[in-house]
Amino acid sequence: MAALFANLPPFLDVPGTPPIPWHKWKNIFQVHLKAAGGSGWEDERRASALLSALGVEGQRKYFAAQEQLEAQGVQNAPHTASTPAALGTGAVSTTEAATEYDTLLQFLDGLFAETTNVLAERHLFTSREQLPGETFLEFVAALKEKALSCKFGATYDDRVRDQVIHGVANAHVRAKLLSYGEGLTLQKAEEVGRDLEALNKANAAFGANERLLGSLAGDGGSVQRVARGYAAASQNGGSATSAAPHSCCLGNPFLVPRLSSATTHRLKCTLRCLRPRINHRDFRGKVLGVPPHLQ
Protein backbone atom coordinates (compact mmCIF):
# COMPACT_ATOMS: atom_id res chain seq x y z
CA MET A 1 0.00 0.00 0.00
CA ALA A 2 2.94 2.31 0.58
CA ALA A 3 3.65 2.40 -3.15
CA LEU A 4 0.07 3.51 -3.86
CA PHE A 5 0.52 6.61 -1.69
CA ALA A 6 4.17 7.31 -2.53
CA ASN A 7 3.34 10.72 -4.05
CA LEU A 8 1.07 11.76 -1.18
CA PRO A 9 2.83 14.13 1.25
CA PRO A 10 2.16 13.32 4.92
CA PHE A 11 -0.18 15.76 6.58
CA LEU A 12 2.07 16.63 9.53
CA ASP A 13 5.47 14.99 9.98
CA VAL A 14 7.03 17.46 12.44
CA PRO A 15 5.57 19.81 15.07
CA GLY A 16 4.37 23.13 13.73
CA THR A 17 1.98 24.37 11.09
CA PRO A 18 0.95 21.78 8.47
CA PRO A 19 2.47 22.58 5.06
CA ILE A 20 -0.97 21.98 3.52
CA PRO A 21 -4.12 23.00 5.43
CA TRP A 22 -6.23 20.09 6.60
CA HIS A 23 -9.26 20.75 4.38
CA LYS A 24 -7.03 20.77 1.29
CA TRP A 25 -4.89 17.81 2.33
CA LYS A 26 -8.04 15.76 3.04
CA ASN A 27 -9.23 16.30 -0.53
CA ILE A 28 -5.81 15.29 -1.87
CA PHE A 29 -5.87 12.11 0.22
CA GLN A 30 -9.34 11.17 -1.03
CA VAL A 31 -8.16 11.55 -4.63
CA HIS A 32 -5.20 9.23 -3.94
CA LEU A 33 -7.46 6.77 -2.12
CA LYS A 34 -9.84 6.57 -5.06
CA ALA A 35 -6.98 6.21 -7.56
CA ALA A 36 -5.60 3.33 -5.49
CA GLY A 37 -8.95 1.53 -5.63
CA GLY A 38 -9.81 2.38 -2.05
CA SER A 39 -13.51 2.75 -2.84
CA GLY A 40 -13.76 -1.04 -2.76
CA TRP A 41 -11.68 -1.57 0.35
CA GLU A 42 -13.06 -2.66 3.68
CA ASP A 43 -13.98 0.21 5.95
CA GLU A 44 -11.28 -0.60 8.51
CA ARG A 45 -8.60 -0.65 5.81
CA ARG A 46 -9.58 2.80 4.53
CA ALA A 47 -9.43 4.19 8.07
CA SER A 48 -5.97 2.65 8.57
CA ALA A 49 -4.77 4.16 5.29
CA LEU A 50 -5.90 7.59 6.46
CA LEU A 51 -4.15 7.27 9.81
CA SER A 52 -0.93 6.03 8.22
CA ALA A 53 -0.83 9.09 5.95
CA LEU A 54 -1.12 11.61 8.79
CA GLY A 55 2.62 11.66 9.43
CA VAL A 56 4.47 11.22 12.72
CA GLU A 57 3.24 14.40 14.40
CA GLY A 58 -0.27 14.02 13.01
CA GLN A 59 -0.53 10.50 14.41
CA ARG A 60 0.86 11.68 17.77
CA LYS A 61 -1.87 14.31 18.02
CA TYR A 62 -4.54 11.81 17.04
CA PHE A 63 -3.50 9.19 19.61
CA ALA A 64 -3.05 11.85 22.30
CA ALA A 65 -6.61 13.08 21.70
CA GLN A 66 -7.90 9.51 21.80
CA GLU A 67 -6.09 8.79 25.07
CA GLN A 68 -7.51 11.96 26.58
CA LEU A 69 -11.04 10.91 25.69
CA GLU A 70 -10.45 7.39 27.03
CA ALA A 71 -9.21 8.89 30.28
CA GLN A 72 -12.53 10.73 30.48
CA GLY A 73 -14.37 7.43 30.12
CA VAL A 74 -15.04 7.50 26.38
CA GLN A 75 -13.84 4.37 24.62
CA ASN A 76 -12.84 4.44 20.94
CA ALA A 77 -13.70 8.12 20.73
CA PRO A 78 -13.31 8.53 16.99
CA HIS A 79 -15.72 5.65 16.46
CA THR A 80 -18.38 6.89 18.90
CA ALA A 81 -18.50 10.51 17.87
CA SER A 82 -22.06 10.92 19.12
CA THR A 83 -20.89 10.91 22.72
CA PRO A 84 -20.71 14.28 24.54
CA ALA A 85 -16.96 14.03 25.10
CA ALA A 86 -16.29 13.41 21.44
CA LEU A 87 -18.54 16.29 20.48
CA GLY A 88 -16.44 18.51 22.72
CA THR A 89 -13.46 17.92 20.45
CA GLY A 90 -15.31 19.35 17.47
CA ALA A 91 -16.48 16.04 16.03
CA VAL A 92 -19.89 15.88 14.37
CA SER A 93 -22.67 13.66 15.68
CA THR A 94 -23.18 10.59 13.53
CA THR A 95 -25.84 7.97 13.07
CA GLU A 96 -25.46 4.21 13.40
CA ALA A 97 -25.16 3.98 9.62
CA ALA A 98 -21.96 6.05 9.63
CA THR A 99 -18.90 4.04 8.67
CA GLU A 100 -15.73 3.85 10.71
CA TYR A 101 -13.87 5.77 7.99
CA ASP A 102 -16.46 8.58 7.85
CA THR A 103 -16.53 8.88 11.62
CA LEU A 104 -12.74 9.07 11.71
CA LEU A 105 -12.82 11.84 9.10
CA GLN A 106 -15.26 13.83 11.21
CA PHE A 107 -13.09 13.38 14.29
CA LEU A 108 -10.01 14.57 12.42
CA ASP A 109 -11.97 17.53 11.05
CA GLY A 110 -12.49 18.68 14.61
CA LEU A 111 -8.92 17.88 15.66
CA PHE A 112 -7.12 19.63 12.82
CA ALA A 113 -9.59 22.43 12.05
CA GLU A 114 -7.72 25.61 11.17
CA THR A 115 -8.13 28.59 13.47
CA THR A 116 -8.57 31.65 11.27
CA ASN A 117 -8.62 35.31 12.26
CA VAL A 118 -11.25 36.53 9.82
CA LEU A 119 -10.46 40.21 10.43
CA ALA A 120 -6.78 39.62 9.67
CA GLU A 121 -7.62 37.64 6.54
CA ARG A 122 -9.95 40.36 5.29
CA HIS A 123 -7.30 43.00 5.97
CA LEU A 124 -4.82 41.05 3.85
CA PHE A 125 -7.48 40.63 1.16
CA THR A 126 -8.30 44.34 0.91
CA SER A 127 -4.58 45.19 0.90
CA ARG A 128 -3.84 42.88 -2.04
CA GLU A 129 -2.84 44.66 -5.25
CA GLN A 130 -1.59 43.43 -8.60
CA LEU A 131 2.15 42.77 -8.38
CA PRO A 132 4.75 43.77 -10.99
CA GLY A 133 4.94 41.05 -13.65
CA GLU A 134 1.71 39.44 -12.44
CA THR A 135 -0.87 38.97 -15.18
CA PHE A 136 -4.46 40.08 -14.70
CA LEU A 137 -5.81 36.53 -14.47
CA GLU A 138 -3.08 35.53 -11.99
CA PHE A 139 -4.09 38.50 -9.85
CA VAL A 140 -7.77 37.50 -9.93
CA ALA A 141 -6.89 33.88 -9.06
CA ALA A 142 -4.87 35.04 -6.04
CA LEU A 143 -7.79 37.17 -4.84
CA LYS A 144 -10.20 34.25 -5.17
CA GLU A 145 -7.88 32.03 -3.13
CA LYS A 146 -7.47 34.63 -0.40
CA ALA A 147 -11.22 35.34 -0.28
CA LEU A 148 -11.94 31.73 0.67
CA SER A 149 -10.59 32.35 4.17
CA CYS A 150 -12.52 35.62 4.60
CA LYS A 151 -15.96 34.01 5.03
CA PHE A 152 -17.72 36.42 2.67
CA GLY A 153 -20.55 33.98 2.10
CA ALA A 154 -23.07 35.12 -0.53
CA THR A 155 -21.09 38.33 -1.18
CA TYR A 156 -17.99 36.40 -2.31
CA ASP A 157 -18.20 37.35 -6.01
CA ASP A 158 -18.97 41.01 -5.32
CA ARG A 159 -16.10 41.34 -2.83
CA VAL A 160 -13.61 39.81 -5.25
CA ARG A 161 -14.90 41.99 -8.10
CA ASP A 162 -14.53 45.16 -6.00
CA GLN A 163 -10.98 44.24 -4.99
CA VAL A 164 -10.08 43.53 -8.61
CA ILE A 165 -11.10 47.09 -9.49
CA HIS A 166 -9.26 48.52 -6.49
CA GLY A 167 -6.03 46.56 -6.92
CA VAL A 168 -5.53 46.32 -10.70
CA ALA A 169 -2.33 48.06 -11.76
CA ASN A 170 -3.50 49.43 -15.13
CA ALA A 171 -5.56 52.62 -14.74
CA HIS A 172 -7.15 52.16 -18.19
CA VAL A 173 -8.40 48.71 -17.20
CA ARG A 174 -9.82 50.13 -13.95
CA ALA A 175 -11.64 52.91 -15.80
CA LYS A 176 -13.11 50.42 -18.26
CA LEU A 177 -14.37 48.18 -15.45
CA LEU A 178 -15.90 51.13 -13.60
CA SER A 179 -17.74 52.19 -16.75
CA TYR A 180 -19.96 49.09 -16.50
CA GLY A 181 -21.46 50.25 -13.23
CA GLU A 182 -23.40 47.93 -10.94
CA GLY A 183 -24.07 45.53 -13.80
CA LEU A 184 -20.44 44.39 -13.78
CA THR A 185 -20.11 40.78 -12.63
CA LEU A 186 -16.93 39.03 -11.56
CA GLN A 187 -16.98 36.89 -14.71
CA LYS A 188 -17.40 39.96 -16.92
CA ALA A 189 -14.58 41.73 -15.10
CA GLU A 190 -12.28 38.77 -15.80
CA GLU A 191 -13.16 38.81 -19.50
CA VAL A 192 -12.71 42.57 -19.92
CA GLY A 193 -9.46 42.68 -17.95
CA ARG A 194 -8.01 39.73 -19.87
CA ASP A 195 -8.92 41.23 -23.27
CA LEU A 196 -7.62 44.69 -22.42
CA GLU A 197 -4.35 43.27 -21.12
CA ALA A 198 -3.87 41.33 -24.36
CA LEU A 199 -4.66 44.48 -26.33
CA ASN A 200 -2.14 46.54 -24.36
CA LYS A 201 0.56 43.95 -25.00
CA ALA A 202 -0.26 43.92 -28.72
CA ASN A 203 -0.14 47.72 -28.85
CA ALA A 204 3.23 47.71 -27.12
CA ALA A 205 4.57 45.23 -29.66
CA PHE A 206 3.11 47.31 -32.50
CA GLY A 207 4.71 50.48 -31.14
CA ALA A 208 8.07 48.74 -30.78
CA ASN A 209 7.88 47.67 -34.42
CA GLU A 210 7.05 51.24 -35.46
CA ARG A 211 10.04 52.60 -33.54
CA LEU A 212 12.28 49.97 -35.12
CA LEU A 213 11.21 50.99 -38.60
CA GLY A 214 11.65 54.64 -37.70
CA SER A 215 15.18 54.08 -36.43
CA LEU A 216 16.08 52.17 -39.57
CA ALA A 217 14.65 54.94 -41.73
CA GLY A 218 16.97 57.45 -40.14
CA ASP A 219 16.56 61.20 -40.73
CA GLY A 220 13.69 61.87 -43.13
CA GLY A 221 13.54 58.28 -44.33
CA SER A 222 16.97 58.45 -45.98
CA VAL A 223 17.76 54.80 -45.31
CA GLN A 224 14.55 53.72 -47.00
CA ARG A 225 15.47 55.81 -50.04
CA VAL A 226 18.91 54.22 -50.03
CA ALA A 227 17.22 50.82 -49.74
CA ARG A 228 15.13 51.52 -52.83
CA GLY A 229 18.27 52.55 -54.65
CA TYR A 230 19.98 49.41 -53.40
CA ALA A 231 17.17 47.31 -54.84
CA ALA A 232 17.28 49.21 -58.14
CA ALA A 233 21.03 48.73 -58.35
CA SER A 234 20.64 44.99 -57.81
CA GLN A 235 17.98 44.74 -60.51
CA ASN A 236 20.25 46.61 -62.95
CA GLY A 237 23.13 44.23 -62.33
CA GLY A 238 25.10 46.62 -60.17
CA SER A 239 26.27 46.29 -56.57
CA ALA A 240 25.35 48.04 -53.37
CA THR A 241 28.83 49.53 -53.06
CA SER A 242 28.89 50.86 -56.57
CA ALA A 243 29.22 54.62 -56.93
CA ALA A 244 27.61 54.66 -60.37
CA PRO A 245 24.28 56.50 -60.67
CA HIS A 246 21.05 54.56 -61.22
CA SER A 247 17.48 55.59 -61.93
CA CYS A 248 14.68 54.90 -59.53
CA CYS A 249 11.14 54.02 -60.50
CA LEU A 250 10.29 57.76 -60.74
CA GLY A 251 13.06 58.41 -63.20
CA ASN A 252 15.14 60.57 -60.84
CA PRO A 253 18.87 59.91 -60.75
CA PHE A 254 20.00 58.22 -57.56
CA LEU A 255 23.61 57.88 -56.57
CA VAL A 256 24.38 54.91 -54.32
CA PRO A 257 27.36 55.81 -52.09
CA ARG A 258 29.96 53.34 -50.94
CA LEU A 259 28.49 51.73 -47.83
CA SER A 260 30.08 50.29 -44.71
CA SER A 261 29.24 46.77 -43.59
CA ALA A 262 27.09 48.12 -40.73
CA THR A 263 25.06 50.32 -43.08
CA THR A 264 24.65 47.44 -45.52
CA HIS A 265 23.28 45.31 -42.68
CA ARG A 266 20.77 48.02 -41.78
CA LEU A 267 19.69 48.26 -45.39
CA LYS A 268 19.05 44.54 -45.54
CA CYS A 269 16.98 44.75 -42.35
CA THR A 270 14.99 47.60 -43.87
CA LEU A 271 14.28 45.61 -47.01
CA ARG A 272 12.98 42.74 -44.89
CA CYS A 273 10.81 45.08 -42.82
CA LEU A 274 9.25 46.99 -45.72
CA ARG A 275 5.59 46.09 -45.86
CA PRO A 276 2.23 47.86 -46.34
CA ARG A 277 1.45 50.24 -43.50
CA ILE A 278 -1.60 49.67 -41.25
CA ASN A 279 -3.06 52.11 -38.75
CA HIS A 280 -3.74 51.29 -35.11
CA ARG A 281 -7.51 50.84 -35.51
CA ASP A 282 -7.13 48.44 -38.42
CA PHE A 283 -4.44 46.58 -36.49
CA ARG A 284 -6.72 46.12 -33.50
CA GLY A 285 -9.86 45.25 -35.40
CA LYS A 286 -8.63 43.30 -38.41
CA VAL A 287 -5.40 41.73 -37.19
CA LEU A 288 -6.13 41.12 -33.49
CA GLY A 289 -9.89 40.77 -33.85
CA VAL A 290 -10.51 43.05 -30.85
CA PRO A 291 -14.23 43.80 -30.33
CA PRO A 292 -15.22 47.44 -31.06
CA HIS A 293 -16.27 48.08 -27.44
CA LEU A 294 -12.70 47.42 -26.28
CA GLN A 295 -10.97 49.58 -28.89
UniProtKB/TrEMBL annotation:
Protein name: Retrotransposon gag domain-containing protein
Organism: Rhipicephalus sanguineus
